[in-house]
Amino acid sequence: MSGLMISLQDAVAQGVLWGIMVLGVYITYKLLDIADLTVDGSFAMGGCVCAVMILVFKADPWVALAAAALAGMAAGTVTGLLHTVFEIPAILAGILTQIGLWSINLRIMGGKSNVPLLKTETIFINFIDMTGMNRQAASLVIGIGIAIAVSVLLYWFFGTEIGSAMRATGNNEAMIRAQGVNTNMTKLLALALSNGLVGLSGGLVCQSQKYADIGMGTGAIVIGLAAIVIGDVLMGRMRSFGSKLASAIVGSVIYFVIRALVLRMGMDANDMKLLSAVIVTVALCVPVMMRKWRLKKSYTEGV
Question: What is d(CA 260, CA 254) in angstroms, rounded to the nearest whole number?
């Protein structure tokens, strides 16, 4: 039982840290209706930059996190430019950036596929030394604090004029363009902001697990979509924008708890990507099938 509780506590902590990545996916997927595949590369890039900043440049862990976020924003900007300036479809632009980031991330880490941070300071180690908490509790407290801060900033930002223009671009691009808004710029900013959050999450996960790996972002977009879908199912009746942001983080926590429970039941860890894909597929297909069934039923009753 104690092992199960430790696993669940670690799952909740990881869910909160990955939840910041899910917030980034939420911006592109829900607000702009774009499945941005840059995420897999920008998440790893955030972790790689964070690790190198701490290990090689001896930077403060918080400065390393800021660098990870900026690196993610740079990756999102590249995708945005490919999509808006060169008119490459968004999904293809994300794929091109993601492929390029694989080589860039390897170069950032000096050609190594894995960079450990075993004997270096991180925000989690410093917090543990200051409070005496265990690793899981420290990760949870720091993760919740940063997630709340990021959510509050996003709530404020999307209430501003430029933030509202971003949301309107996803709702009705033609209408907001008719109002004189440069929709290419709003898309570019949204992609940069989204991947900045993804890079920040990658840096947090890197410091939490004490290593950066070239493949740490593989499947991140699927995890993000699964978390968003789970959050929508649990908190879909709440209509406020703040609750939508909260649902993304809650969905991430639930996803990692489900994953921890499944692993405890003996499922092969290599099958987790398949499980994630199945969760997203079912969650996306069921509402469509239910809507078609209701529509067919209404026609039948009308006859």
Answer: 10
Q: What is the pLDDT of residue 302?
A: 58
Of 133, 112, 147, 106, which is closest to residue 249 (Cα–Cα)?
147
189 vs 181: CA distance, rounded Å: 13
Question: Quick one: average pLDDT of 233-240?
Answer: 80
Q: Going by C-beta distance under 8 Å and a sequence separation of 6 or more, which residues neighbour residue 31? A: 166, 167, 169, 170, 190
In sequence order, what are the beta bridge partners of 114? 213
| Alpha carbon of residue 40 to chain centroid | 9
Locate 43 and state its tokens: 């998440």
Q: Round to whole Å and give the CA distance between 47 and 200.
A: 8
pLDDT, tens only, 144-191: 999 999 999 999 999 999 999 999 998 889 999 998 899 999 999 999
Distance (Å, whole) CA 218 – CA 189? 24
User: For 200-235, b where at least 16 C-beta lie within 10 A, e where not — what string?
Assistant: bbbbbbbbbbbbbbbebbbbbbbbbbbbbbbbbeee
pTM attached to this predicted model: 0.94
